[in-house]
């Protein structure tokens, strides 16, 4: 797996490194008319014109993605991830800002994105009634491959992802994860030096997830493929990404390696307490924690300095509250904690 | 829109080579083949429903229209046959494109280097092809039910592609231009209902304004061309058939061009 030095990583977000920059985004702004939050393009097109101010789905985004990097865009639903990716793939025009991909100005020439990028979107309706094999082969042909090359590419990618047993089945008759993997296969055929993957592993079992990351790694090793990954899954972000941009309300609130971002909150730990029934608020050690906890049913989540967390655990496990405790975990901070520490306001990040 | 461009000469020189575009005809063939394969999965709506509907209408009309060559019998058979084309190529295609657009399914094509015309023409051609078995079955059944000659049925080999082009172009344009999926569905249904009412009923009984509406409906010319041949080759006024088919062809070219423009607009915002 590709690893960069820390100094490069910290310098990257602010310095335009034309040397190895694959994708450079500056001041990207995209607004939607408010009150029409739907992603449906038809609903988005005709604005009433007189109603509330438009929503800035992307509000001045700067990014630098380097060659061969697995670069993540992490944020909860509604953070503006998909809007950003749709502009990078030429599907949506920015209101302002610039996008340069492999030396091409994509704001001026959005049509070039299709000739530079392999894209996996969130929707598969165009492919649902095709068999896996035909969906992959047709996509390869539409990426400019001739029939023999498209068939060879199809067979190779179906074998690689272990989809050959499903080749003859229509996508709509597959499980969600299998369908997603078939769509991922369509993004891989007709090799591109940049892959943009919008939540590629949604609904997949661990085996399929591993197949996805193995396929991505093979392309990075063999061809130096650059991968832009959109995710709201913090575990995935921490384990597979070289660098990650954390998006919140249309802005990049942080951009660094997952390890460097976690270091921002290194002096904190996360304490999860799960009570058997109600929390024993009569116990002072518990009552004092209540205002600090993020409460979700019987689960309390606390982000505390390390010594404070240790003391809290000692108090609870050593005192009368222990009888009411069902489970507890003490964990080093995740990217979710980073997101919250940086002022992220959404709560849609997923740990799975 | 403000565009920031900082393309210095050395950076422009360093621009990565672009992958080739997909050619018009190869990608049209690929789209056509892929769309055609959908008939295996969605056999009932794409192939059977329209045929059942048209045969049902003919059976019903047999109760009020005498068998034997006459304007009414010809209208019923020709109208019901072309109704299959209107149902699939206009109504179902409008719904298909409307749904693809509303769900974001167009993104798949829009992020591939494929000419818009390939997607629209390939899909329209596939939908026109879906109508072939249904139209032939309906026409044959109609000729038997109403005691009409089948010797002119070969004209369907021209009527289906030309009326198919006109109606599928219209269906695709409606589906891609309608601001919402529901409206695309509604327009498709209305178009098909118009083709049903104005195609199946004999025109000489229609009030003048209804006749005018009939005249502007592209399916009418497919119906007319086919109806003219149902009396047998000897009784057919061929120049009029050619004229009707030319109208279909012209509408086909225009509506498919419109649909291609609509696709381009819908695919990139």
UniProtKB/TrEMBL annotation, chain A:
* Bilayer topology annotation: Peripheral membrane protein
Does the record's keyword annotation contain Protein biosynthesis?
no
- Give the record's keywords alphabetically: Antibiotic resistance, ATP-binding, Nucleotide-binding, Transport
Q: Boundaries of each ABC transporter domain copy?
A: 38-274
Question: Which GO terms of the molecular function aspect are on file?
Answer: ATP binding
Keyword Nucleotide-binding assigned to the entry: answer is yes
| Cross-referenced SUPFAM superfamilies | P-loop containing nucleoside triphosphate hydrolases
The cross-references to Pfam families, in alphabetical order and at most eight, read:
ABC_tran (PF00005)
Where does this protein chiefly localize?
A: membrane
Give the UniProt subcellular location, in the record's own words.
Cell membrane
Organism's domain of life?
Bacteria
* Region spans: Disordered: 36-59
Q: What is this protein called?
A: ABC transporter ATP-binding protein
Automatic annotation (TrEMBL), chain B:
- The regions listed as transmembrane in this protein's record are 44-65, 77-98, 119-147, 153-176, 183-201, 238-259
Q: Which InterPro entries match?
A: ABC2_TM, Nod_factor_ABC_transporter
Q: How does this protein sit in the membrane?
A: Multi-pass membrane protein
| Chain ranges of the ABC-2 type transporter transmembrane domain | 40-227
Principal place where this protein is found?
Answer: membrane
UniProt-annotated location(s): Membrane
Identify the keywords attached in UniProt to this record, alphabetized: Membrane, Transmembrane, Transmembrane helix
What is the protein named?
Answer: ABC transporter permease
| Species name | Actinacidiphila acidipaludis
